[in-house]
Amino acid sequence: MQSLGKHLVRTHYRHIVGGERDQTMDSVNESRQTVYQRADGAFLINYMSGKRQVTPTADGAYECIQTVQVGVSMQSLTGVIDEVMSPMLRTVLELESGDRWIEIDSDVSARYVGNLTRTAIGLFYHQEGTLEGRHPRRWFALVGKDDAGETVGKVGLCVLPENESTLHPDFVAECHITGHANSNPYPEFAAEIEALADVTELPITPNYQGRPIVDTPPPRRPGM
């Protein structure tokens, strides 16, 4: 599969309410995403834990159509939120397992990731912005499917780049890592965390909620 680099991708959201199309709710989201070309000529983008086909347009962009079914059950509502939010999350690293590291860059994505990870990462991200007036730390989450096929956040972390400073260093550790529902992500996700550190060249050191982990077993090598 050949990477064609970053291109403008337009996602057209068509809403079905009560089994009928409601054009008043339709919307278009534009973002720059990496486009791939498969051997058979199809064009694809990263989508959730897999790929999604897109169509080239005359102006050099790509587009796809997403149908949003508005249901009444909580399960349906969760599915709609996932369908809308997932394409907006910026993928930093995708693994062969289907999991992917995404970078949090807004309060909206932070709250969504907080729900996926079942942690307070959304609250902490917002508080940092209030205290600092910006986000000196970089915030990431490992997103993928659990054993039941549901999209979850398996790891959440923030890290202060070496060339950055903060007005409130005691607000959170310079590198803070936690797992789903605040579980310890080591050693299960040690390799995935190490892979993110290698790709970003950030000082991501093994820790659990800011407390260093010593004698970490050699990580299994993740699919990359």
Verbal overview:
- By secondary structure, the protein is α+β, with helices and mostly antiparallel strands.
- It has 4 helices and 13 strands.
- Strands 1-3-4-5-6 form a 5-stranded mixed β-barrel. Strands 7-8-9-10-11 form a 5-stranded antiparallel β-sheet, with helices on both faces.
- Strand 3 and strand 4 form a beta hairpin.
- Helix 2 packs antiparallel against helix 3.
- The chain is globular, with a radius of gyration of 19 Å.
- The model is unreliable at 72-78 and 217-224 (pLDDT under 50).
Key attributes of the depicted protein:
13 strands, five-stranded mixed beta barrel, 224 residues, alpha+beta
Q: How would you summarize the topology of this molecule?
A:
Elements: E1 2-17, E2 20-21, E3 27-37, E4 43-47, E5 50-56, E6 62-70, H1 74-85, E7 90-94, E8 100-104, H2 107-117, H3 121-132, E9 138-145, E10 151-159, E11 175-179, H4 190-200, E12 207-208, E13 211-212
Parallel strand pairs: 1-6
Antiparallel strand pairs: 1-2, 1-3, 3-4, 4-5, 5-6, 7-8, 8-9, 9-10, 10-11, 12-13
Helix pairs in contact: 2-3
